[in-house]
Amino acid sequence: MTRHQKRLSVPNSWPVERKEQTYTVKAGAGPHGEEGVPLLIVLRDVLGYVDSKKEARYALEQDSILVNGKALSDEQRPIGMFDILAFVEREEYYRVFPDEGGRLALTEIDADAADSRLGKVVKKQQVAGGDTQLTLHDGTTLLADDDTITQNDSIVVSNDDKSVVAHFSYEEGALVTAVDGEHAGEIGTVDEIQVTNGSSQNNVLVDQDDGRFETVEGYVVVIDENFTGDDA
């Protein structure tokens, strides 16, 4: 199986220039599905901390690059929305956040904010023993004691013990960001959730200071002011 991917065919969320070269590194197995950006691209093309795959591998061997609190060894590991990157020796911390246009970008945050990450609940189910299992947007699964958490809500998960440290309900009045579609990267407040019949997604009307936009439910994520980057 090839370890390269044509730049013209990468997802729109990848922060790469499509016409500079024919190929780029291919994402390995891991979270975020096909939208996940290989860590090498973040280190080389976005931050400029390495010039090659060899340099990236050496940097990872030092255990000073953490993703969601865990040291990584694979430069192809997919990085995606709301992941937390920590560069221990540099004392630099970033949250992966979609910019306007939908490309994944890095928002600098402080060390305290790097202790946890945001996740959108995409599935909730009962498992053996009667526990409630939540599945997040990146494929992460965890057990939760809070029965009020439901699909489309957002939670903040500790990178240390994977516990839920905050819960933001998906409801009218909630602060959200669009993460896909023509309004990707825009932030506003849910004005109305329009329930549709059948299998179609619900529509969401989002108010902003200078107007409003409409998108589908699957394209929005509930956030807190601390996750917009304004307080970083």
From TrEMBL:
Keywords: Ribonucleoprotein, Ribosomal protein, RNA-binding, rRNA-binding. Gene3D superfamilies: 2.30.30.30, 2.40.50.740, RNA-binding S4 domain. This is Small ribosomal subunit protein eS4. Residues 2-33 form the Small ribosomal subunit protein eS4 N-terminal domain. The keyword RNA-binding applies. Belongs to the eukaryotic ribosomal protein eS4 family. GO terms for molecular function: rRNA binding; structural constituent of ribosome. The lineage of its organism: Archaea, Methanobacteriati, Methanobacteriota, Stenosarchaea group, Halobacteria. It holds the Pfam family Ribosomal_S4e. GO terms for biological process: translation. SUPFAM superfamilies: Alpha-L RNA-binding motif (SSF55174). Residues 91-163 form the Small ribosomal subunit protein eS4 central region domain. The keyword Signal does not apply. One of its GO terms (cellular component) is cytosolic small ribosomal subunit. InterPro entries: Rib_uL2_dom2, Ribosomal_eS4, Ribosomal_eS4_central_region, Ribosomal_eS4_central_sf, Ribosomal_eS4_KOW, Ribosomal_eS4_N, Ribosomal_eS4_N_CS, S4_RNA-bd_sf. Signal peptide: none annotated. It comes from the Archaea. NCBIfam families: PRK04313.1 (NF003312).
